[in-house]
Each structure stands twice: as C-alpha cells, then as structure tokens.
Specification:
36% of the residues lie in helices and 21% in strands. It is α+β, with helices and mostly antiparallel strands. It folds into 2 domains: 58-109 and 120-153 and 187-221, Penicillin-binding protein 2a (Domain 2) (Alpha-Beta Complex); 227-272 and 283-576, 3-Layer(aba) Sandwich (Beta-lactamase), CATH 3.40.710. Strands 2, 3, 4, 5 and 10 form a 5-stranded mixed β-sheet that branches. Strand 20 (496-510) and strand 21 (517-524) form a beta hairpin. Helix 10 runs antiparallel to helix 22 (538-552), helix 13 (299-308) crosses helix 16 (363-372) and helix 14 (342-348) crosses helix 20. The termini are far apart.
Length: 579
C-alpha cells in the first residue's frame, strides 16, 4: 500500500471527540442494562402479564340451570348441553380453503361468513350459538387457530306452547326473560365455575394453571301448575277462540283452598322452543298483564256490600223498571222485570237492580268493599308485569260513575285479579294469597273480606245464575253444583265504547257446596253474532271445570238429574246469555 492510501484510511479525531462518543455509548449501554434488570429482576409483573395474556386463559364453566316442573314432577323446562362456536380476532388464522369449508359446515355463504369474522373487537365473539353436534365435530377437525368451541346450555321446554305464558323463556345467554324463568332467575341460574389454563398458539390446552372452581347447578322449581289441567284449559280456550273468531282470550284455574294457580292459558300463544319467531303480541301474558272492565261479574260484590251493611237481604224485593235515570245517564236492563229480589237481580243480571243497591250506599262504603276484595291492588302472585288494575278514589266519583261501577264500568281488572277476588265467595269470606309455586300441605292464612254468612248467601245467589232462569245455564257441570257470574262489556276504543266490540266473561266455582276450584274465562271480541258471557265464555268454563273436577277426584255434590247440561243452539244461547 502506497503512502497516499495510508493517508486516506487514517482518521484524525480530536481526543475530546472520542471521549464524548465513547461516553455516550457507555451511558446508552447502562440505560439498557438498567432497564433490563428492572423489568426482569425487579418488576416482573408487566412482562409476565403480557405473556399470560397470550398463553393463559380464564375459562368460564357455565352452570346448568335448574329444572322447572309442574306440581306432579312433569318437566316444563330443562337445560341441555350444546356447543357454540367462538372466535378470537387477534389469533384468527383462516386460509381460503378453511374459509370455504367452514362456510359449508355452517350452511352460510362465504361472503356472510367473511363479514361475521371481520368484526373488530379486542376480545372474543360468538360466531354461531349453538352449533349441532355434527357441525361441532367437523369444526374441530379443521383446527383453525382463533376458532374454538365452547360448552354451553340451551333451554328446552317439553310442554311447548301449552305452558309458555307461565314458564316463560330464556335468551341466548340463558337469562330468564319472561314468566317464572325471569321471576326466579337468581334461584334457577346457579353459579358459574372458573378454570385457568395454559394454551399454545393454536389454542390447544396444555395444562391447568389453577385449581378448578366447579359450577354450582341452579335450584329446581316445582310450580303449582297441574299440566293435565293446563292442557285442558289451553285446548278449550283455543277451540273457543276459533269457534267464535275472537281476537284473543284467557283462562285461569285457581285452587280456592290454597290460592295455588293450577292453570293459566292465553290466546294467541307462542312456542318458547322456536326463538326465531318471537313476537311481542303472542308473548304477552294477557291474564296477568292486560286489564278490562269486568262488566256484570262485579255485581256479586255489590250484593255483598249491601248485605253486609244490612240494607237488603236475599229476598228483599226491589223495583226494577226497564230504564232508570241517574243524572244524564239512562241505566237499562236487556231483559226487564218490574220487580226482582236481590237473589233474582244476580240471577238475571239486572243493571237497574245493581245500581239501586250500590246507590243505597255512599261511594266510600262501596269503594271500601271493592278495596278489601283487592281491586286496584297488585294480586301478589309475584309474576313479572302483573297489574293492579284501576279503582279510583271514591272522593272523585260522580253520581254517574257511582252507578256505572255497579255493573262493571269505570274500573279495570286483570283476569287473575278478578278470579282471586272470587275466592272471598268460595272460602266463606276469606281470600288466600296467590302462588305460582306448589305449596306443601300447611295452614295458609287468608285475608277476610266478607263475613261467612254474607259470602254463603252471595254464593247461593250465584248458584241460581247457572239454573233455570239464570244467565249462565250453559255453565252447568253434570253431577256438581256450580256458582258463578256472567259478564259482557262493551270495549273502550279511542275513548268511546264500541257498539259492536265486546269482552265476554264468566267466573265461577265448584262444587258450590264447598268450592275447591275457581275458573275465570274472558274472550276478547267474539264475532259471529254471539257475544254474551254465558254463551261464549260459559261453555269453556263448563268443559274445563268438568274435566278438572274428575282429574282431582272430587266427589259430586248434586244428583245427575238436577245438573243435566242443556246444549241450546247458539241463537237461543244469545237470549239466555248474561249481560
């Protein structure tokens, strides 16, 4: 190498510059060393947490929801294990072939699957809940990183639509949404378990990192429903709705001695096993949530109030002209009679007679009886969404409202609330607390509404309703004495009473000598020319009551010859029907 080359390769730096560069290099090396020591020696949680976030997983072990049964142990709701497909976007690695295979397995178009998997989320999301066992097996063989199967539980309802409005249903997360599923969510749900595992980059579990906290199964629930009676109620109500081309309807069956709800059905109905077709209308529990003006079914309470105050007795004769004016309101009887006893006023459902008895009392005195019977208050069943109806303060009543309250206009009730109030007549004046749960044999304390004497006298009046000359002759049950009251009310539409739209109802009890069952029926907007409660709701009551009494094995309390049920033609039934 010549002299010039050596001169070009040589570096001429001032000593102070070399010192500065060397010092900076040493300082940088010291900072890196200190930081590494800090992270790996003193503060290990940060990097450990980052590593754990990639490899460790805290898995939730879902608890199996408790069973729901009827009073005899027949299943109404049960949970079955299923597999669901979930994805972790940060780990998802899916080539074109796997994408096409997965789309075929799930039965969707590749474009739809691509849209589903393209979700932007830091955690994980459900791709399909649930998948069939065959789909789960095929997905497992694909071995796609970021896709995994999770064990869950899906609710199944063996009784289907028959008990749908009572049992309710759960959502995809197994949380109760309606009915007893919602009311007893905490009891039925149980407690989820937990498991911490170490996974490789493909999502495969390598080992457990912490002891498993096992899931605690939810508690079982035995309802007061009798599935056999529930089926009868569902069938007969559906048949009546179809026969009368009605908009809807409800039926309630109560055990008068215990307050247990043995059956409750509504139309229209829904199938809780078919989650895709849920509609708000059919899902509504009309018997508990909807209110209506009770019409003539309120008249026994008018008679009871007058009897309690000593204003009348069952054989008191009252003048009942065809019309009677109260203020600017003309009260009219459909089937007028010049004179009627109190017993006959109930039997023939006289509006004029009921108004005269009600107006013999002050508004406060009549209101007090209705309040004691539970009107304007929650029925206390514990069912989600139950309504208190409406009973305005007596101080606000005008004379016309005082009169209309006597035949069931101006107040509103639910069918469950109305049936509950009739327990006062069935139990010699006491009303038992309602229950959707089965009660063990024990003494149940009721609330006294009427004296035993008054309750029995009114029950005898209501028994006359079902006999010759009464408005409820089509409610008879062979072999049993029946007591009850028909009701027919115009519907309030846009603030006015529609002249051709009705609510037809009947509430009754049997055996009348010592009532065990109370059944309330209401049919919404029957059409075809028949709309009186005795002709529309009465036969439903009779069919369900007859079968239920036989189901419970209750002995007859009347000779067959006195309880032969006449099946009059529908045209004749209209004339015999109640107001």
């Amino acid at each position: 190498m010549n002299y010039h080359a050596k001169t070009l390769l040589s570096i001429h730096l001032a000593p102070w510059r070399m010192a500065i560069v060397g010092g900076l290099l040493l300082v940088g090396l010291g900072v890196v060393t200190a930081r590494a020591f800090y992270l790996q020696g003193l503060n290990t949680d940060y990097l450990q947490g980052k590593g754990d976030a990639v490899a460790n997983r805290n898995l939730t072990l879902p608890a199996q929801r408790g069973q729901v049964t009827d009073r005899h142990g027949q299943l109404l709701a049960i949970s079955t294990p299923v597999e669901s497909l979930w994805a972790r976007p940060a780990e998802l690695r899916l080539d074109a072939g796997q994408h096409a295979q997965l789309a075929r397995v799930l039965g969707v178009k590749p474009q739809e699957l691509a849209k589903t998997l393209a979700r932007k989320t830091r955690g994980e999301f459900a791709v399909r809940r649930p998948v069939t066992p065959e789909q789960a097996a095929k997905i497992a063989t694909l071995g796609v990183p970021g896709l995994y199967l999770r064990r869950e539980f899906r609710r199944y309802y063996p009784a289907g639509e028959v008990a749908a409005h009572v049992v309710g249903f759960t959502n995809v997360d197994d949380l109760g949404q309606e009915g007893v599923e919602r009311a007893y969510q905490d009891w039925l749900a149980g407690r989820d378990g937990h498991r911490q595992v170490l996974r490789d980059r493909r999502g495969n579990t390598i080992r457990d990192l912490a002891p498993i906290k096992t899931a605690q199964q939810g508690g079982n629930l035995a309802l007061s429903l009798d599935l056999n009676i529930q089926y009868l109620a569902h069938r007969e109500l559906a048949a009546a709705i179809a026969r009368h081309k009605a908009k809807g309807g409800s039926i309630v069956v109560l055990d008068a001695k215990t307050g247990e709800i043995l059956a409750l059905a509504n139309q229209p109905v829904f199938n809780p096993n078919n989650r895709r077709d849920y509609q708000p209308g059919p899902m509504r529990n009309r018997a508990v949530i909807d209110t209506f003006e009770p019409g003539s079914t309120i008249k026994p309470f008018v008679a009871a109030a007058a009897l309690e105050r000593g204003l009348v007795h069952p054989d008191t004769v009252i003048e009942t002209p065809e019309t009677w004016r109260v203020g600017n309101k003309l009260v009219r009887d459909v089937h007028p009679h010049p004179q009627l006893t109190v017993r006959e006023i109930i039997q023939k459902s006289s509006n004029v007679g009921s108004v005269k008895m009600a107006m013999a009392m002050t508004p406060a005195q009549y209101w007090e009886v209705l309040d004691r019977a539970g009107f304007g208050q929650l029925p206390g069943s514990g069912f989600p969404g139950e309504t208190a109806g409406r009973l305005r303060d007596a101080a606000t009543w005008k004379p016309v409202e005082h009169a209309t309250m006597a035949y069931g206009y101006g107040l509103s009730v639910s069918l469950l609330q109305l049936a509950r109030a009739y327990m006062a007549f069935a139990n010699d004046g006491e009303v038992m607390p309602l229950s959707f749960l089965r009660r063990e044999p024990q003494e149940i304390t009721g609330v006294r509404v009427f004296s035993p004497t008054v309750a029995r006298e009114v029950r005898q009046m209501m028994e006359a309703v079902t006999q010759e000359g009464g408005t409820g002759q089509r409610t008879r049950v062979p072999g049993y004495r029946v007591a009850g009251k028909t009701g027919t009310a115009h519907k309030l539409v846009d603030g006015r009473y529609a002249p051709d739209r009705y609510l037809s109802s009947f509430v009754g009890m049997a055996p009348a000598s010592n009532p065990r069952l109370i059944i309330g029926v209401v049919i919404d907007e029957p059409s075809g020319g028949v709309y009186y409660g005795g002709s529309v709701a009465g036969p439903v009551f009779a069919q369900v009551m007859a079968a239920s009494l036989r189901q419970l094995g209750l002995p007859p309390d009347a000779p067959e010859t006195l309880t032969h049920m006449t099946q009059a033609p529908l045209s004749a039934g209209r004339a015999a029907g109640g107001v």
